């Protein structure tokens, strides 16, 4: 639950903190093996029924944070097995990015309809009368559902005036918009990687912290301590994520305190992406393509390619804001390393593609960076003021919220061709995105449209790696948009740069042709 300090979020944050400290202090494999005992001290369990189980789960989470895979349950190994490879500065984690720690999974019931203690054993028994399968009987003066007969239609739930009958769904299954969560023979969650698009919504929803993503905290810090300058590029959703103490005039100082050379805002790349997508729309729709899908959310664009392959060519060829910003910085600083910092797990997957690796070296979430601040004991109150980030438009910053990408593209099209009307439809969350694409491909209702897809309901400000409540983040983002020095992408000072890029169409095609490479 974003913005609430639950036991799960405290544990995740502590994992990231210890991995960051391990990197900053040049820790050894022996010290890594001892970390579960440092994180879960003493003899009494804190979170679960067994302290041994707690430490085992922490061990797997530590491995994931280092970029390593979970260990098989059937053979003995130490949590440091494979650590030397992970300690190499250039390591990219092996797929899958998101996985289930099987012995941490609670094997939750899925779509179970049952009677709670709220049942009053009323005279009317409407639940019994409306059940089409005769699955409800009265036992000991209360309603009882025979699950072997129940078809989970929900009629009994609607009929009960006490709201005593409820439907339970496995949280990870409910959160997954692409139906990628299945179960193994023990009823534990299992991710179908052929369907998964690495959005991370299952990770956020699991209250048992059984789902993890791999990270590059260690590798980023080793690069920071190395010979190359490392620049942090911050996704537009960063505003407000680290609390009120990290004011716009302290952002640069804060990341420099972690060892980064400097920072830049990815909203600059969003301005460039706006220009490219607007030009794509004007050139391709409706003459060559029936509609155009935005490209900035990798989980959404991968979902389109996996589930609607015939519509793959309708995904804009524009590189994402992350890649455009990284490419711009590497044009200015050829020997630097780039670390994207944002709310998104699927960006990690995007950054690991062969066609992207040369531009984006590392990818961290806000949650992982918060662990780095903790490890370095950065006091945000005592940071000196520094030059704020002022190079992006309000529209570019607006990419972080649902509807923002389409709004920026529409504004740009109106600027260069006032006669052109751009119709927009958006999908907010992958379930809505799939519905939108079904309508677009089967009914042609959206021919001539710009289709914006966001994998996370609410947009990037609701991403799996965020720290603040979505509503609070939206307020911060709105203020950031208002505070921009200019409002439209057309006013960016980098418009000529993107126009002059050599072979840009070929590079766009390469980056989009094989999104999972």
**DSSP strand tally:** 15
What's the pLDDT, averaged over the residues?
A: 93
Please tally the helical runs, counting DSSP H or I stretches of 4 or more residues. 21
Main sheet makeup:
4 strands, parallel
> How much beta, percentage-wise?
5-15%
* Rg value: 25 Å
Separation of the first and last Cα atoms: 32 Å
Read across the widest sheet, the strand sequence of neighbours is 10-9-12-13
Low-pLDDT residue intervals, each spanning 5 or more residues: 502-517
- Percent helix range: 25-40%
Structural descriptors:
single chain; 517 residues; alpha/beta; four-stranded parallel sheet; three-stranded parallel sheet; 21 helices; globular; disordered C terminus
How is the secondary structure organized here?
Elements: H1 7-24, H2 29-39, H3 51-65, H4 83-86, E1 98-100, E2 112-115, H5 126-130, E3 136-139, E4 142-145, H6 155-159, E5 165-168, H7 171-175, E6 181-183, E7 189-191, H8 201-205, E8 211-213, H9 217-224, E9 230-234, H10 251-257, E10 262-265, H11 267-284, E11 292-293, H12 298-307, H13 321-332, E12 337-342, H14 346-351, E13 362-365, H15 366-376, H16 394-397, H17 404-416, E14 423-428, H18 430-442, E15 449-454, H19 470-483, H20 495-499, H21 504-513
Parallel strand pairs: 9-10, 9-12, 11-15, 12-13, 14-15
Antiparallel strand pairs: 1-8, 2-5, 3-4, 6-7
Helix pairs in contact: 1-2, 1-3, 1-9, 1-15, 2-3, 11-13, 11-17, 12-18
